[in-house]
Amino acid sequence: MESGLSLKQEVGNDGFMKTSIIGNTGLIDGKYAFNGAVVKKTGDGTVDHAWTDAWAYNFGAVWNINKNNRLEFYALAAPQRHGQNSNKENIAIFDSKYATSLDGYLPAALASYNERGRTYSQNWAPVSSSYQGLQYWNGETHSRYDQNFINQAENYYNKPLVSLNWYSKLSESLNLLTDIYYSGGTGGGSGVLGTIKQFNANNVAGTGVPLPWRYDWNATIAQNQATGESKGILYNSVNDQWTVGALSKLNYQATENLKLTAGIDVRKAEIDHFGEVRDLLGGSYFIDNFNQFQTTNIKHLGDKEGYWYTDNVDWFSTYGQAEYKSGAFTGYGTAGWSTIKYEYRNHFAKDANGNEVDIKADAVTGYQFKGGVNYNLTSELNVFTNLGYVSKVPIMSNVITSGGLVVNNPQNERFNSYEAGAVYTTPGKELKLQGNVYYTLWKNQAQTVNVTNDDGTSGQVFLNGLNSRYYGAEFEAAWQPSRLFKLDGSASFGNWMYTSDVSGAYLKTPTGTPTPYTYYINGLKIGDAPQSQFSLAGTIYPVDRLSLQLVWKHYGNYFSSWDPFSRTALENGTRPQSWQIPDYSLFDLHVSYRLPLGTRKSEVKLFAHVFNLFNTVYVQDAVDNATYAKFDGNHSADDAGVYLGLPRTWNAGVEVTF
User: Cβ distance 121 to 47 under 8 Å?
Assistant: First the structure.
């Protein structure tokens, strides 16, 4: 990169402020180069009290040792804190008028919910500024973010990454690329534990006491101060982790037409999971009885509580690939194999010998095969096809659970994927069209259930066999007929669903009677993502250095998320779909202008962005028949827990480069 410095300042709605500084030295003496960036971002949050306080850093260095060897070093980190909004609500809590405009939302449901506004969040509540209790996170005590409120759910995290890359040309036909890296950090999220007082407590839809409730921090603090014992607290759910690894890839140009590649990936990770007293909320101590090794059950600020276990992961994988090019034809094939070993140590639980529970699971292995071909029919048109088969290694919780139970006979999930497409570009490059069709099968998704092993210990077994199918088509187009105008568009059409019911039986005990199970999911749509998406972006350049862009995005065929393992019975003899989120369209506006300074390297750029330009009300995310939001449980609009999409937001700024 050329030497230079860039300064960017952005401001936006709800106190948004972002400052960025980026610098590059350029190449020094043909051997060295350095670059770095610092970013600071703060804001009150468009959603109530979903504030953010974040930094980001990166540093890079390059050393060209000689014509055949180069070292690259980089380090990056992004320490951040933010107030979360982790509760989906009934639609009427956000916007009762919008709720009743939806098909399936019963007007009778409105009596169960108080409208609080589109940006409402249940995850905060006011507190008296006279309460001066400290909070604990990241290994030390802190004053809370704001003296006038407390977030029930706050997230904090930082996981720096440091990497050293070595690029080596061993011969004219052979080169080696190796990356050695370390990543480690601490962070977590907060929550409530014990008895927390509430405003509008003990309310459930249909009881005549409208939702939502909210935590009453002042009453909870008074409760705890009265006796000194904290009956309710805030706690942190902490992950403290590190990973070291190496990736190495050998490229060999065997012939003019054939390129061979082989690689390995080795990693070792250790992750501590534990609960931690974050805020005693007026009390002096908290009683916790989960640690079997403890000499006292009294916990103070910053003490571990509830659980403490460590996961160890040892990973090794390797692959080989061949790529062949001849004239208009290109083809490749890849085969890979991986193995993982998991270990679990519970520092709060005793085994039969009075030591910490330590479980080492047998290694699990997976493999994959992928291949594809491309053919250039003309200089403007090429066609391609790809296929793959993946046998995916189970994640740790499907081998050893967080409670220390070993899963009996864990099995791999399997993926079969097929794709074909074409790309066309006009001779003058003013128009580019590309499209593809795809078909994917996801087989053997599983649930685990508790059983008793032959030796009397607790265990878990897989109830597997869930199969789903995904197929569809995707298109992209870019057209620039003149210097003054450009049009970009995309469209995707999908059909994603479960393909069969699942039935079977399992033994809860070795000598017991088989327990049958059935999941009634045949033909039910996959939720949590729109299966049809469209976008169109028109950009005009009315004068030199000025660009105006209007973007239209449309989302449809969008089903709320749901748990297939919850469908254990037919409902009135049918398998009802999860609630379908209404289709919606959004418009965004982007403007930028580069001031003419008359120099090649110096530039001042002004920019502004408006998102959801017409302030459309829409459901961005939903859960079907949400436990704390449903009205009558009929998979309708009045039973969904949702996040509404953000209202109109904006940011603007200036970037100076020299």
Answer: yes
What integer pLDDT is reported at residue 206 of this predicted model? 40
Q: Where are the alpha helices (DSSP H) in 454-608?
A: none
**What's the rounded Cα separation, in Å, for the pair 405 and 279?**
31
Contacts of 362 (CB under 8 A, 6+ apart): 341
**Per-residue model confidence (pLDDT) at position 350:** 93
Whether residue 651 has pLDDT greater than 70? yes
Is-above-0.85 flag for pTM? yes
The set of long-range contacts for 563-571, using a CB threshold of 8 Å and a minimum separation of 24, is 564/445, 564/466, 564/498, 564/519, 564/521, 564/524, 565/447, 565/463, 565/519, 567/519, 567/520, 567/521, 567/524, 568/517, 568/518, 568/519, 568/520, 569/520, 570/520
Cα 554 from Cα 478, distance rounded (Å): 18
Per-residue HEC secondary structure of 294-330 comes to: CCCCEECCCCEEEEEEEEEEEEEEEEEEEEEEECCEE
* Burial group, residue 627, by CB count within 10 angstroms (0-12, 13-18, 19+): exposed
pLDDT confidence of 398, banded at 50, 70, 90? confident
Q: Give the strand pairing for 458-482 and 413-425.
A: unpaired
Q: What type of residue sits at position 320?
A: G
Look up residue 513 and give its DSSP letter.
P
- Looking at residue 209, its pLDDT comes to 60
Any idea what DSSP says for residue 362?
P
d(CA 584, CA 645): 10
Q: Report the DSSP beta bridge partners of residue 42.
A: 17, 53
Residues 6+ apart with CB under 8 A from 193: 232, 233, 234, 235, 275, 286, 305, 306
Structure tokens at 481: 């007929």
Exposure string over 138-163, b if 16+ CB within 10 A, otherwise e: beeeeebbbeebbbbbbbbbbbebeb
Task: Work out the number of other CB atoms within 10 angstroms of the CB of residue 444.
Answer: 16
- What are the tens digits of pLDDT across the range 322-374? 999 999 999 999 999 999 999 999 999 999 899 999 999 999 999 999 999 99
- Residue 462 reports pLDDT greater than 80: no
Q: Is 614 left (phi over 0), alpha (psi -120 to 50) or beta?
A: alpha
Sort strands 154-158 and 80-83 into parallel, antiparallel or unpaired: antiparallel
Average pLDDT over residues 204-231: 83
